[in-house]
């Protein structure tokens, strides 16, 4: 009889569960390892090359003070206030200033200029009237040749996101800020591996002790992962994913790299619809300071805001923000991060300094549009948003404010036409840089920018080009030559006969070229333009920067060519430079956020549109326009020989133009209607009044005409337009090219034969 084999005992339920758990654990471990490998590959790549997008931050010009510079104390103080310098009785730190008996003393902040970083510097600037008398370094009393203030921040340009940040290296961040941040947010940052159980426990105890949330349990690395790569969703999966990603980052990157990235990424609130990220820009937003200048109270507030940028917004909830700041100051004092004296001084400070809380107080749509256009034409690195850009422009806030105020106040005064529009462009002709742009009667209006896009006939503004080329190409033509203001008919193929008229419908007959230019007589300009040649006039416009179509018709001699105010400004910049053309630009230099040069404007040799002698003669004539011609109201306001300029009026009073320039700036104003209907304004009754308002708010640098060696003072017969000796009582004294006169030339303009006894000697 055979025995039955015993069947193995069935595994118990517990054992089956354990086995299943083991298998699932192995599968889970495999999946986790695979996921970690995936995270390691993707996250490392993204963090290495594309941590965040940094915008292009736009800055204006740096106000540079030099001995003998034309500027007064009030203008410098206004600039300091604009830059959020604080008035104090005793200067102790950067970002402070005080008025003195002879000028102003200030402590210039450190700043990374386009030319390189400059340290903080304390100086005394003394004035004599409207000029800088001396600049002295303090406290050593050493004389300085110049001092440069940091440029004003204008705004941002980006490639699509709405995040603002100014990237700063960890070496620029105050150690107190780093220590306070780690104290509040992650005490074990340098000791954990991305996730800290002890931090979670410590935060729970601290919050329980304070009966409120004063610390968070997430590490800085976890917060960074959440800000960079995850959504705000509250779920276990997101939290687990956050922890795994933090571990990967901590393994692959150094603590300092993670901390620097956090300091540039952490969110601090909104400014005009833009999200402010990073301590670099937050320092500017809330305190008007560079990050290096932050004091203990500033640091406590910034660290406090991190917990809830909206809830602790010091601009909206100052009491709430102060309570949070003071709590952090207590913790800083308790951890010996500050002395008792520092603590007492810090808690007594206001939450925000007066005048801060905005990066940009006013938007500048028309100037920023120009910058954006030019930036798009530069050969920038394809990945520039990874390092950000700092764009340094020629923008001058003083001149921009003057232009905006002028167009707002003067348009209702010159006309009650509600559809009257205007545009202003101001350029520094010495630097060929655009300093101010207004493209609408409402300077804040976003949309059609008339300063660069309104193509309007320019009228008499074209006449200086005709005269300049005549001085150059016609051997005997001078300011004292005769021109003919007499009726003229021009035959045109397949066109009606053209009969040009003067503005007053009258004819003066024979007159000197200087008078014809100063009085803006039309018919003499047409005659001269025909003699110079229509094709030559077209060539001159192109050499002066015009790249739009130019009609090749006789009427071009009276400005029948549509140009923008920007194009006109470039032409008159060339005239102000006595015939030397350089294209106008708004951008001077571009660096990345670390200060490395990306683009620097290089000036090639200017293009000579006409000779220096011709340029001098036409400038003399345009100075006459202001001294005694159609722009004489400006001479009444500012004095003779300080400005040159030209008026322009088109048919049926549809366009009112005026351009004026001193030794540094060209101011162009256009007034008209978008529907091209008459506005009943001449250049002198409309645009000139706006120009005058702009100039009244700017320091005038009197025009200095540089006479070439080939030009001399000459006498001209006032009726005949021929050279006569300069000592004749009837001589009109005007500059002219050097010319040897006949020895017996008399004051009548004829050779006067001497009596025989005079000829003996």
TrEMBL record:
InterPro entries tied to this protein: Beta-lactam/transpept-like (IPR012338), Glyco_trans_51 (IPR001264), Glycosyltr_51/Transpeptidase (IPR050396), Lysozyme-like_dom_sf (IPR023346), PBP_1b (IPR011813), PBP_transglycosylase (IPR036950), PCN-bd_Tpept (IPR001460), UB2H (IPR028166)
One of the record's GO molecular function terms: serine-type D-Ala-D-Ala carboxypeptidase activity
Record-annotated Penicillin-binding protein transpeptidase domain positions: 422-691
Highest taxon above the source species: Bacteria
GO biological process, one term: proteolysis
Residues at the active site: 185 (proton donor), 460 (acyl-ester intermediate)
Catalytic activity annotation: Preferential cleavage: (Ac)2-L-Lys-D-Ala-|-D-Ala. Also transpeptidation of peptidyl-alanyl moieties that are N-acyl substituents of D-alanine; [GlcNAc-(1->4)-Mur2Ac(oyl-L-Ala-gamma-D-Glu-L-Lys-D-Ala-D-Ala)](n)-di-trans,octa-cis-undecaprenyl diphosphate + beta-D-GlcNAc-(1->4)-Mur2Ac(oyl-L-Ala-gamma-D-Glu-L-Lys-D-Ala-D-Ala)-di-trans,octa-cis-undecaprenyl diphosphate = [GlcNAc-(1->4)-Mur2Ac(oyl-L-Ala-gamma-D-Glu-L-Lys-D-Ala-D-Ala)](n+1)-di-trans,octa-cis-undecaprenyl diphosphate + di-trans,octa-cis-undecaprenyl diphosphate + H(+)
Cellular compartments annotated: Cell membrane
Coiled coil regions in record: none
Alphabetic keyword roster: Antibiotic resistance, Carboxypeptidase, Cell membrane, Cell shape, Cell wall biogenesis/degradation, Glycosyltransferase, Hydrolase, Membrane, Multifunctional enzyme, Peptidoglycan synthesis, Protease, Transferase, Transmembrane, Transmembrane helix
SUPFAM superfamilies with a match to the protein in the record: beta-lactamase/transpeptidase-like, Lysozyme-like
Annotated family: In the N-terminal section; belongs to the glycosyltransferase 51 family.
Protein role: Cell wall formation. Synthesis of cross-linked peptidoglycan from the lipid intermediates. The enzyme has a penicillin-insensitive transglycosylase N-terminal domain (formation of linear glycan strands) and a penicillin-sensitive transpeptidase C-terminal domain (cross-linking of the peptide subunits).
The protein's name: Penicillin-binding protein 1B
Lineage, top ranks: Bacteria, Pseudomonadati, Pseudomonadota, Gammaproteobacteria, Alteromonadales
